Amino acid sequence: MSTNTPVGTAARPLRVAVIGSGPAGVYAADILTKSEAVKSGELTVSIDLFDRYPAPYGLIRYGVAPDHPRIKGIVNALHKVLDRGDIRFFGNVDYGTDLSIDDLRTHYDAVIFATGAIKDADLNIPGIELEGSYGGADFVSWYDGHPDVSREWPLEAKEIAVIGNGNVALDVARMLSKHADDLLVSEIPDNVYAGLKSSPVTDVHVFGRRGPAQVKFTPLELRELSHSKDVDIILYAEDFEFDAESDRQIQSNNQTKTMVGTLTNWIAEQPEDLSELTASRRLHLHFLHSPVEVYDGAEAPGRVAGIKFERTELDGTGNARGTGEFVDYPVQAVYRAIGYFGSALPEVEFDHSKGVVPNDGGRVLDAAGTHVPGIYATGWIKRGPVGLIGHTKGDALETVTYLLEDRENLPQAATPAPEAIVELLAGRGVEYTSWEGWLALDEHERALGEKATAAGGSHGVTVQRERIKVVPREDMVEISRGAAVEV
Ligand SMILES: Cc1cc2nc3c(=O)[nH]c(=O)nc-3n(C[C@H](O)[C@H](O)[C@H](O)COP(=O)(O)OP(=O)(O)OC[C@H]3O[C@@H](n4cnc5c(N)ncnc54)[C@H](O)[C@@H]3O)c2cc1C
Ligand SMILES: NC(=O)c1ccc[n+]([C@@H]2O[C@H](COP(=O)([O-])OP(=O)(O)OC[C@H]3O[C@@H](n4cnc5c(N)ncnc54)[C@H](OP(=O)(O)O)[C@@H]3O)[C@@H](O)[C@H]2O)c1
Question: What percentage of the chain has pLDDT greater than the value 90?
Answer without folding.
Answer: 92
